[in-house]
Design a protein that fits this description.
Thiol Ester Dehydrase, Chain A; MCH/BMMD; 29% helix; 5 strands; elongated; 5-stranded antiparallel β-sheet; 34% strand
């Protein structure tokens, strides 16, 4: 179980691989982001994306899955107070295989909550061609070892 103390500055955690399935792209878009370039091949080809692509929000959800698989579920995470940056760098397509890393940028103890630490991380997600598709900076709150025992 990872605690705050395990996420020191420059700690890097591998994420993925995660295969993007066409059916999942269509299902997510149908429910949450029904823009034509996420649902229809012809409309997608005619768009600036030049082909069917996952919603950026779906890409974020896939990144979250990769984070949970890599470290979040096996940590003392208490959630996140927010996201500072999300940049969708290029389309994510059905058949892509995503991977990347989460790197700790900052780590500090909470000034108001004993037993809690706050880490700022940057996730960089790439496709199988090593092209950057997503950058995300966010914070996560984790119990310290002492806080986890309390």
């Amino acid at each position: 179980m990872r605690t705050f103390e395990d996420l020191t500055v420059d700690t890097t955690i591998p994420l993925g691989p995660y295969r993007v399935e066409r059916e999942a792209v269509l299902a997510f878009a149908s429910e949450f982001d029904p823009q034509p370039f996420h649902l229809d091949d012809a409309a997608a080809e005619a768009s600036m994306l030049a082909g069917l692509s996952a919603s950026g929000w779906h890409t974020c959800a896939m990144m979250m899955r990769m984070m949970c698989d890599a470290f979040v579920v096996d940590s003392t995470s208490q959630g996140s107070p927010g996201v500072d940056v999300i940049k969708w760098m290029r389309p994510v397509r059905p058949g892509d295989v995503l991977s990347g890393e989460a790197r700790v940028l900052e780590a500090r103890l909470s000034g108001s909550r004993p037993g809690l630490g706050i880490c700022k991380l940057r996730n960089t997600i790439r496709n199988q061609r090593d092209e950057m598709v997503l950058v995300c900076d966010y914070a996560v709150m984790l119990l310290t070892r002492a806080g986890a025992l309390a």
